[in-house]
Amino acid sequence: xxxKIGILxxxxxxxxxxxxxxxxxxxxxxxxxxxxxxxxxxxxQNGESSSDMTADADEPVYGGSVIVGITQDLDSLxxxxxxxxxxxxxxxxxxxxxxxxxKDGNLVPAVASEYTISEDGMTYTFTxxxxxxxxxxxxxxxDDVIYSIKRSAGMLExxxxxxxxxxxLSVISEINSxxxxxxxxxxxxxxxxxxxxxxGYLTTPIIPKDYDGQAGAPVGTGPFKFVSYTPLQSFIMExxxxxxxxxxxxxxxxxxxxxxxxxxxxxxxxxGAIDIFPYLTEEQANQLSSTYDIEVGNMNLVQGLFLNNQxxxxxxxLVRQALCYAIDRxxxxxxxxxxxxxxxxxxxxxxxxxxxDETLENVYPYNIDKAKELLAEAGYADGxxxxxxxxxxxxxxxxxxxxxxxxLKAVGIDAKIQLIEWASWLSDVYKGRDYEATIVGLDAKLAxxxxxxxxxxxxxxxxxxxxxxxxxxxxxxxxxxxxxxVKIEKYRELQALLTNDAASxxxxxxxxxxxxxxxxxxxTFYPVYVQDMSVVAYTGTPENHQ
Length: 546
Hints:
This protein starts with a strand and ends in a 7-residue tail after the last strand. It contains 12 helices and 26 strands. By secondary structure, it is of the alpha+beta class. The chain has helices at 85-91, 142-153, 262-270, 282-288, 317-326, 329-337, 368-377, 395-408, 422-431, 448-452, 469-480, 484-500, and strands at residues 2-3, 28-29, 48-49, 60-61, 65-70, 99-101, 107-109, 112-118, 123-128, 172-179, 185-191, 224-230, 234-239, 245-246, 253-258, 276-277, 292-298, 302-307, 342-343, 385-391, 414-420, 437-442, 504-509, 511-517, 520-521, 537-539. Helix content is 22%, strand content 23%. A hairpin with a 5-residue loop joins strand 10 and strand 11 (185-191).
């Protein structure tokens, strides 16, 4: 027997939710579009607004264009080749999967109109909408869906080495299509082993099977269509007039303007040249509060001082533990974010709710004496020196590194900061693993396995070089079980292993401070790292539009 579920893998993650569906052939009344009608005094998914505007003033209107500031270039326009979270936050507006996240952490139907998951976790069945068009005007077919999933899973007969193969999809044994008696097209995904978390990975973008131009002119099904891309300068998109969700998007055009770093973007904000910018420091937010609305939420990612577990001296667990004691996480929050943010104790953040083990936050209290004791035991009584490689385009991580450098001096550790371009970080640190320590933020899909799977010994993205056979075995158990209680227990065990092994110094899920033009409404925080422009709108009369 099959049960209808929204799935336990959502970041709200409190219980199984009802199946989301709608009748095929008609435009859907967009569930998340209500956020564009909320006044900016109301609380969003993860935060609140500083706006004093009234509900009447916040009435959304159609038309206009906005400029959104971002601080890293896109690493690929092909959604199956994109690695960086900063790329996916932009492409979210162009592409959709069978399902996609809403602002409350639910995985709701997108290209599919509804779905079911068998009770044994072995079969996923999706009913496709009748009215979804790609941006090139072609109708989405079962062949397109099957091709897209197989491409992401590495199941095509001829594979592209640049495609980022999603290892979680390796449990798929077969994908077939059929037509129901009512004439509805269905996609049936059969698995080789039980997996109730796979729905969190079926946000993988659906693209046209017979189109080979994604790298230069991406074509998806999302609320906006690609217009142009100039490397290191801008990514421009326009309203998709054929979008199947009714009433969105509001804006006619959105430009993502690429700035070299936060300081450059801040100067443009001060000049009024950017309408939305989501990476403010606390100091910058304070300076802009009179000219922009400042929205406050969470980044929903793990910020840490990530350590190369195979590079001396971090191949010594005592040294790694010493760093955990020597770093004052609350001090970092106070210095960098005005006290905002959520301290974490392992490679998971609070948004994962029932899976998150908050007790791990207290395993390494700030303790200089304990840090010195462990360093002496490890043979580093006089300390040591090392280099922290930090992407120069993320001021928040740079500021965090500066605080850590000062804190470590108290235990005799001389840490130096090396600022590198984002492209160099991807090639040297992430892929080449040529580093001692780095500070970044790690995001995740709406599945608890996704936030932890990089620590598997054989994971291609295990840039931390963490290896623990016990972790590997428990991870397999956690993913394979369909018992919710067992799944919670196993994921908590995995977090504890990372904490006790001090695989890295886990700091926080940072707060996200976003500057928003006071003429705009609808900016919405999501439990994943995206910028959803479909629900952003100008308020008042047409003359307010840019």
